[in-house]
Known about the structure:
The protein has four domains: about 5-180, 3-Layer(aba) Sandwich (Alpha-D-Glucose-1,6-Bisphosphate, Chain A, domain 3), CATH 3.40.120.10; about 185-290, Alpha-D-Glucose-1,6-Bisphosphate, Chain A, domain 3 (3-Layer(aba) Sandwich), CATH 3.40.120; about 300-415, Alpha-D-Glucose-1,6-Bisphosphate, Chain A, domain 3 (3-Layer(aba) Sandwich); about 425-495, Alpha-D-phosphohexomutase, C-terminal domain (TATA-Binding Protein, 2-Layer Sandwich), CATH 3.30.310.50. Helices cover about 40% and strands about 20% of the residues. It is built from 16 helices and 18 strands.
Amino acid sequence: WPEGAITKVLEKSSLHPKPAGLVLQYGTAGFRTNAKQLDHIMFRMGLLATLRSRKTKATIGVMVTASHNPEEDNGVKLIDPMGEMLTATWEDFATQLANTEQKELLAALKDIINKEAINMKLEAEVFVGKDTRSSSASLSQAVLDGVHALGGQSKDYGLVTTPQLHYMVCCQNSHGQYGEATVEGYCSKLSQAFLALSKNASNRTDDQKHLFVDGANGIGAPKLREVESHLKKQLQISIFNDGSRGKLNHQCGADFVKVQQKPPTGVEISPGDRCCSFDGDADRIVYYYTDSRGFFHLLDGDKIATLISTFLKELLVQAGLDLKIAVVQTAYANGSSTRYLEDTMKVIVRCTKTGVKHLHHAAQEFDIGVYFEANGHGTVLFSKTAEEKVQLLAKSTNINDERKRAALLLQNTVNVINQVSDRRVIETTDAERRAVSPAGLQEAIDGLVKKYKQARSFVRPSGTEDVVRVYAEADSQESADALAHEVSLAVHRLAGGVGAEPKPL
Length: 505
Ligand code: G16
């Protein structure tokens, strides 16, 4: 142990005491609940990140955010060395540490140190970031206290988006190869690649260069303003819901738009305007527009994945590169998007459980793994081999113009993408598409689905909110709504629903 660390842990932990008996679960993206319950969790996640840094001999990230959840919640996302989410084996350590009673904390730490054979003499470094919630300042201080108590070094990035913190961690651990670990470095790397790519679409009209951005009243808005000057008017941005008036994620943001299938409040959109929405920590994006009849069209994660994989596949063919490309989705992906990708695009499609960490791992199995959750969370991963092949081709002098152009576009695409990730009575299997408990629920859902054309439905407990999510799809909006209602009634009846029965949509 670094000198004085044991005393410091004891001393500092008493300033961040755990309420006796409180038990919290590591959810889809880390711990997430009302901010009032999180002070000890943040301190302990500071401790855990410091251990993880010693174990991996690399910098670890801790982002204080509750993303799409309401303002009064908060949470923590832990970032592993290459910018990915904390490895699943350490989620158990996180849960143990979070739920250990105050007087057992030292023993719990020692247990992890022994199990993972961590050399406590090594240096440790943790990067910390936070979103704009009012509770984030004190909670990120609690994380820093945890890091310092165990003798770790820290760098506090203050207000940043989640993807920015992932980027910083990756830059630091790749010794600058991925980019410079500053907000300026982030803005300049991504915008340079964007400008190079947009030269390929030089005939865009002013309208096509204009994007309306809903900042969800969160961190995305101020951070986008910092990128704006780098974009040299190739993208003109009008930001609304920028946090100057409205409430975080309230009637706005990616989750609202996706779930409600309607534009956020706070903006008047005219037919054809190009719009998008971030969520509270700007790691989700969905696009939308209204047509001349006023109908709303959503371009969600399914559509984004389809467009990106189509674009990449065309470039691979033009470049003459033989790389294996796949799209990873979750059960929430609309059935038509899966059919289109498999049958028309002839792309491999994989389905995983909800949570970027699951999609990310599946995407790593391919040369190019495009992964998107329908809710707008995702990215594209290029394997080392894929990156090298693209770079080699882009440099080569003895290829024709078409191949060269495609290789350069692929190279800029690699750079523009930041590659970096009670309701529990319901248990699920098959990538969460079927419920195994409570008894009879899946049979009931199967029976209801049969009543509708082209229908699918599944239910699962959320890992970020205290709700059961019900998904339904069918050949018309009315049928999908009716199916969703019938399935929610079945959940209410068979899984011990609380309060009044769900109403029709
Ligand atoms: C987090 C996860 C996402 C997941 C979402 C909802 O997103 O990172 O992968 O889709 O929660 O999860 P659940 O359905 O379990 O509540 P975010 O943007 O809230 O961090």
